[in-house]
Design a protein that fits this description.
There is one protein chain. By secondary structure, the chain is of the alpha+beta class. The protein is built from three helices and seven strands; from the N terminus they run αββααβββββ. The strands form two sheets. Strands 4-5-6-7 form a four-stranded antiparallel sheet, with no helix packed on it. α2 crosses α3.
Length: 126
């Protein structure tokens, strides 16, 4: 059984009202739970964009389609959620760092996160 089939089956048992997106099986990564609400399908946003690009869209067109037709397509409480996954990069000193819109998060030894101001995070001249 494929992972997407397992996710759909599990989600169907937990929340029969949960909806899934047609043609985006490759981006289905699980389900998300919220306090006081039944679980809903969870998709990887970047994988959705890549699926649209594989169908002939430019990145700009794929992101616009995603913004207006996917995120903008509210169809009720069972509407899927879309996660933006922040990937870990290797830092200059070899330490694991996470980047998100100009901020760099360095891992603490206890596993916590501490924001580190980096005004050159998006600069090519590092």
């Amino acid at each position: 059984m494929k992972m997407t089939d397992t996710i759909r089956e599990t989600l169907g048992e937990l929340n029969p009202e949960a909806l899934t997106a047609d043609g985006l099986d490759g981006a289905l990564i699980g389900y998300v739970e919220r306090f006081g609400m039944p679980p809903i399908a969870l998709y990887d946003r970047e994988k959705v964009i890549r699926i649209f690009m594989s169908e002939g869209s430019t990145r700009e067109d794929a992101e616009e389609h995603f913004s207006f037709n996917v995120i903008g397509g509210w169809v009720g409480e069972g509407t899927p959620a879309f996660a933006t996954i922040i990937k870990e990069e290797r830092g200059e000193e070899g330490r694991g760092q996470k980047r998100n819109k100009g901020r760099v998060y360095q891992r603490r030894r206890q596993g916590g996160k501490r924001p580190v101001h980096d005004r050159h995070a998006n600069s090519r001249h590092r």
